[in-house]
Amino acid sequence: MSKLNRDVLSLIFEELQEDSKSLFSCLMVNRLWCEIGVPILWKNPWCYNGINYSSKSTLLGIISCYLFDDIKKLITNQVIQLPSNSLLFDYFSFCKSINVNVISSIISIGSPLFYNQFVLQQEFYNFIMKKCLELRYLDIRSIKHQIFYFPEAKARLESICELKCDTSIDSSYFYGLSQLCQYIQKLIIINIDPKPNHGIVKLVEVQKNLKHFEWKDVFYGDYLTEDPYKKIFLTLEKKVDNLEYLKVFFLYVDGIENKTLQRILAKFYKLRILISDGFFFFTKEQLEQLKKQVYHDLEILNIEWNSLNVISCIVENSGEHLKKILFRPYDTIEFDYYNLYENSLNYIRKIYENCPSIEYLAIVFSSSKEHFTEFEKLLKVCRNLKSLLLTICYIYEEEITSEKIVENGEELLKVLINSAPNNLKEIRFYNDFKFSLESLEEFLEKWRGRSALSILTSDSIYERENYKELINKYKNEGVIKDFKCSLQIDEIDYRF
């Protein structure tokens, strides 16, 4: 392994660039590994999970090596040991990113005085604009420095392809960025102020190659007098020819966002990924309009807090490329409470009629024989399925007995054994399904020879000694890969 050539090592280390622990370990093998690993590690040194940057004085020491002596004097923390020798690498020549919050956290180690921190940060940004020849990623949440005024800013900021910001930043700041950053491909906006930010609107307007857009509300406001979404999404509509990824999270604010989502769903025909979380309602007329929209390239659909009819409309108009259809089942049950029987049947049918390539799928259905029959048809058609999230609802049952729940569990296992595709490797279900010890053993025995199965459930019955003994047996024999029980609802739901 230590004798692999430079090109092979570089490819391996690139795959590890988000795994800081493994990448740091590689640096210790020998000088060649270190020389290859350091540039990859320092592309975006602010992104590693598990690192407490506010306690990493060594990073402050590296930063200080690039500062003038009169600026270093502002570091008043006597515990900090500034390097006395020259650095082994010109670390920041590899850097392609700025993360304001992380950099502020590191620099705050040097001095508790806000003035000193401000000057240190200012000098650092000035330096990084000179040193980093190709900036690609910019996270400016809570920024206090107008970095676009530095002499080298134009050359550096023109190459930014990913920007993360929040709406608390003054509009004038975004006007400045708009002059330089016009080729952003990925834009993430955290909405912490319910008032419209016209600077962000301008920033979106000038983009020439915007492919990925995310919007997340994190405020809890009162009644709004002005729509905070209208202008930004009207502007975003003009980018439909390039936009492939759209993720929005709206907090419920007096129904204003309803019209916004309807406009989004009706316009973005080139999307490959659509993720939406919020409480929305579509009239019959709006659903008819949605049925006319075609999504030829859609691969991932994740719409929360909505009717199955809305999901079915989008599925019906997809280009048969859908691989993931995800939602939180219990939220959908609440939304579709009075029409769940018909809507869930229609949804299952739309899946097997339009999604031959589906791999990850959430399904809600009733305990009727008709639902199990349609589900079996789906399994026979959708042979690429890898993971299922199953929820059964007993809204229309006058009396639900434990025997009936176990009976439905046995029916589900029979359908899976008879018709599940060989690719199926994971099943998630809530405690609406229960399996007797005998039916579970029969199922696992018949599953033998297929891909090892992972099962996630919220039912603690499987923690009983007789169930644990059975599960461990089939784990040891390679039939079960993993079996997790007593999980919370959000642990079973699919997560992005």
Task: Describe it.
It is a single chain. The chain contains 21 helices and 14 strands. It has helices spanning 6-15, 20-27, 31-41, 57-64, 69-72, 100-107, 114-131, 153-157, 171-178, 198-205, 230-237, 256-267, 284-291, 308-316, 329-335, 340-354, 369-381, 402-419, 437-447, 465-476, 489-492; strands at residues 97-99, 137-139, 162-166, 186-191, 212-217, 245-249, 273-277, 300-303, 324-326, 360-366, 387-393, 426-429, 453-457, 480-484. The protein is globular, with a radius of gyration of 27 Å. The mean pLDDT is 85. It has a 14-stranded parallel sheet with strand order 1-2-3-4-5-6-7-8-9-10-11-12-13-14.
Note the main attributes of this structure.
single chain, 496 residues, alpha/beta, Leucine-rich repeat, LRR (right-handed beta-alpha superhelix), 21 helices, 14 strands, globular, F-box domain-containing protein, LRR_dom_sf
